[in-house]
Each structure stands twice: as C-alpha cells, then as structure tokens.
Design goal:
Length: 361
Amino acid sequence: MVILLNPGPVVLSERVRKALGKPDLCHREQEFIDLQNKIKTDLLDVYQLPADKWASIVFTGSGTSAMEAMMTSLIPSHGKVLIIENGIYGERLTKIANMHNIEHVVLHHEWGEEIDLEKLEGELRYHEELSHVAVVHHETTTGRLNNIDVISELCKKYRNVPILLDGVSSFAAEEIKFEEWNIAACAATANKCCHAVPGTSFVIANREAMQQMSATPARTLYLDLVTYLNAQDNNGTPFTQSVQTFYALAEALDELKDKGGWEKRQQQYWKLMDIVRNGLDKLNIKAYFDKEDCSCVLNAFQLPEGVNYQELHDKLKAVGFVIYAGQGGFEKSLFRISCMGEISESDMERFTDEMGKIINS
C-alpha cells in the first residue's frame, strides 16, 4: 500500500472505498436527489450552519472549479474584488478574475509571506468601490495558514466588505468562522480534508449574498451557482453529476461525523504532523514555518543540502510513501508533507525512519 503524503487525493478509508461500489443511479431519480440533499445538509453540519441562512451548493469538478464558481457567481458586474496573494492559489484567484474580466485589485506578497495588514488596510481605505475581498485560507504553496481573524476585522472596519474564502485545503480540518468573518462564500472540495475522492466540489454560500446575484446575468453556464442553487433547492440538478463520487462524499461526511467532526480531525492531523516535524528535526531537516504559522493539513520542509527532490521522492516511493514537491521558486529548496486521509501514527513513524535511512545512507 502506498501512503499518499500529498495534499489530495488522499488515502481512502475502507468504508469510503466501498461506497464507490454502490448501485448505478440516474441523476434524475429520487434516490439521487435524496443523496444530494443528504450531502448538502451534512456539509452545513460540519460547521453547524443554519440552512435558512446558508446553502451548500454541490457540483462535479475539482477544487479549482469551486474557486472559479465562487468568483464568477458572487461578484456582480458592477463589483470589484481585492485579491490577496501570497502563494500560487491566491494568484489563481487573480487568473480567474482576469479570464472572466472581473474588475479587481491585487495585494501581492511573495510566496509564503505573512499578509501585510498595514498594506491591506491601505487598500481597503483607498478603494472605496470594493465589493469583496478574496483570500486563500490555507495556502498549500508553503503551508501557511492565513490569519482570517484579523483580515475580517479590517474588512468589517471598512464598509463591512464580505469575504470570498478559498477553503479548498482547510474545510473540515481548520476553524472557519462563517458568521464572524463575514463570509459571502467558501469554496472547497471533497478530496482533501473531507477524505472523499476527486470529482465533487462545493461552495458554502450565504443565501442573502446569493439572492443579491439572482438578477445578475451569469458569467458561465456550467459553473453558475445561482443556477445550481435554484435547481438544488427545488430537488433537482441542472447537469449530470458524478454519482459515484457523491456516494463517496456522503460516506466520508458520515465518517467525519462519527470521528468527532473537524475539531477531532484537526487534532489528529497535528498528532501526525508532530511526528513528522519532530522526526525530521532530529535529522536536521527544518520546517519552513514555525508551527503557529502553518496549517495542520500541510507543512513544508527544507530539502537537506545536497539532496535532490526527485531522488528523495523516488526513494521514498520505493518504500511506500509519496511526498510533494515545492512549487515554482521553491522547487529546488522545499518538499511538502500532508497528513490527510487514512494515515496512522505508525505510518508516520515509519516515514521518519525511512527518511533517516535515506539521509544517512
């Protein structure tokens, strides 16, 4: 068995894997609607969100499709979004805005940098026309967990600007304060902290924010969240959904609930990540961030001097572990480890043992 230490797809539990083998189902039948409704309810329950104020909108696609659906569906034609960048996924939000001609301002940081609150406040003060702020919660480029608490306070201070949150790599494992953070929508996916398979993504959206968009012409056909919400609120779906991945997500959400919810999942991730951080530290392999600056979901580590990433990757894969490369300018200096999925403490202890054998060979 290969242990995936990449940030999704994840090692599946046996019960989620079995769910993929459930009977074939037409997406126009009542049985599918029941499945879809269960998923929508269970997604809201992850953060105890009331269904009269919040909607979970589920569709077939990757995490990027959820980001694109959120950006194109929640920003009106007369709106303008401030996009905060400090990694590749913040920059992806900007790419989406550019491709769809969404008016925007970019607050750029180098990858991994802490968000400059003074500059953010300056942008919010100067650009009175801003309708939204878009930001990545957990930037897996480096593992940094952006401080949405302080960002949201500034947004509330300046005209109560709502937040579009990329929660693709944090939903179901990190705290997300939907009400306190003035979130208009949060994009996420099934195949990361939810522990399901790739193919289903979703947006948790404020119903009032969605209602405000109901009279606005859609920017896309397939990714228009207003269309999905109207259909799903009326026990339908506008397009063919990936039924088997829906089965997997439904089972994974049951498993999440059975295991104590996002708080317990966060604790488990940190328990596993601490084994990695402590084990690698003994090998003089340093974490890129202090623990308080990064997410429980993924941490980045410095490649030891003289160690080539590809060689390290291949040697670890040969003994059953898949690690993740650094991106862009970090390609030759970092590697990344995620502890999502069906991974045990003994798995991570064996991983650090194998790292030791490689480094000391």
